[in-house]
Amino acid sequence: RARKHASNVAFRTATTAHTYQQLLDRSAVLAAELLGEASDLKEARVALLVAPGPEYVAAQWAIWRAGGIKVPICLSATEPEWEYSLTDSGASAVLGDAPTAAKIAPLCAKLGVRVVNLDSVTSPPAKLLPEVSPERRAMILYTSGTTSKPKGVVTTHANIQAQIESL
After folding, report:
1. Which of 52, 86, 112, 143 has CA 20 to 30 A from 7's CA?
2. For 17-59, how does the pLDDT look when each residue is reduced to its tens digit (9 = 90+)?
3. Which pLDDT belongs to residue 45?
């Protein structure tokens, strides 16, 4: 749907506006970085640790466009909470902006999880992105953990689409 509204403003901040096309372009660059030599992440889990805004959306789309499963992790979580989310989900990478990537990098080094600093990703060569069917898994959200350890709840692209359409 973003392509149908490519020239429309998707985000407006106090200083800039971002169109849907800009988000699509940025997500393609980030998806290519995530893929590296692979042609499809094949539902690899990728944790997302980015402040709200246009870069968050571009990073989320990048994970999906590369064929990965997004695992959002809380910016204000403690290191043990991050470690639990990363290990429980089996995350293979973390996407973060410069401040968050630097903050989580020591933990990722300990766990053997790749860290991608979004601020250092510019324009890799154009790459063909995989076709992702609605039946594929899209996201793992964690419950609050008020009664025991948080549980990962998996949702598909079709589930997300249905939620959007119902709104």
Report:
1. 52
2. 999 999 999 999 999 999 999 999 999 999 999 999 999 999 9
3. 98
User: Can you spell out the DSSP letters for 54-123?
Assistant: HHHHHHHHHHHHTT-EEEE--TT--HHHHHHHHHHHT-SEEEE-HHHHHHHHHHHHHHT-EEEEGGG---
Query: Chain-centre distance of CA 114, in angstroms?
Result: 14
DSSP 44: -
Token pair recorded at residue 31: 């998806």
Q: Are strands 17-19 and 45-49 parallel, antiparallel or unpaired?
A: unpaired
Confidence of residue 144 (pLDDT cuts 50, 70, 90): confident
Burial tier of 98 (Cβ tally within 10 Å: 0-12, 13-18, 19+): exposed
User: What is the token pair recorded at 36?
Assistant: 């590296």
pLDDT in tens, 77-115: 999 999 999 999 999 999 999 999 999 999 999 999 999
Helix axes 98-111, 79-89, angle to 10 degrees: 60
Tokens found for residue 148? 């025991």
What b/e readout covers 116-136, taking b as 16+ CB neighbours within 10 angstroms?
bbbeebeeeeebebbebeeeb
